[in-house]
Amino acid sequence: MLNRYLSFCLLILSVSAFAQIPHLRKQGSTAQLIVQGRPFLILGGKLGNSSASDMDYMQPIWPKLQQMHVNTVLAPIYWELLEPQEGTFDYTLVDALLKDA
């Protein structure tokens, strides 16, 4: 059992050693964003201030973003929706946005 556990830990460590977090790489006088080991060009879009607070409102927006070929979306999330009561966090909206994106 211990052998299996140690093998599993070594496997996780070796996989995570190859996984790179996104980072900037210096290229001459500029920098490139590197994601999963490859240059990444952000084709971004920004939602209106309260657009992301209602998932029904967002349903027709997703296809429009897809038609514009964006690969990055800035979505404001209001703190009072994330923490409706002090110390109590509700990630339902964030989870839904990530799922639909």
Distance between the termini: 41 Å
Counted beta strands: 5
- What's the main sheet like? 3 strands, antiparallel
Q: Please count the helical segments.
A: 5
Which percent band covers the strand fraction?
A: 15-25%
Class from secondary-structure proportions = alpha+beta
Low-confidence stretches: none
Q: Assign an overall shape.
A: extended
Which series of helices and strands comes N to C? HEEEEHHEHH
Helix residue percentage: 40-55%
Supply Rg. Answer: 19 Å
The tally of domains stands at 2
| Overall mean pLDDT | 85
List the strand order in the largest sheet: 1-2-3
Salient structural properties:
single chain; 101 residues; alpha+beta; 2 domains; three-stranded antiparallel sheet; two-stranded parallel ribbon; 5 strands; 41% helix
Can you walk through the features of this model?
With 101 residues, this protein is an alpha+beta fold. The protein contains 5 helices and 5 strands. The longest helix is centred in the first third of the chain and has 17 residues, at 2-18. It folds into 2 domains: 1-39, no CATH class; 42-101, no CATH class. The chain has helices at residues 2-18, 55-58, 61-67, 79-82, 92-100; strands at 23-27, 30-35, 38-39, 44-46, 72-74. A hairpin with a 2-residue loop joins strand 2 and strand 3. The radius of gyration is 19 Å and the shape is extended. The strands form 2 sheets. Strands 1-2-3 form a 3-stranded antiparallel sheet, with no helix packed on it. Strands 4-5 form a two-stranded parallel ribbon. The model has no long low-confidence stretch (mean pLDDT 85). The chain starts with a helix and ends with a helix.
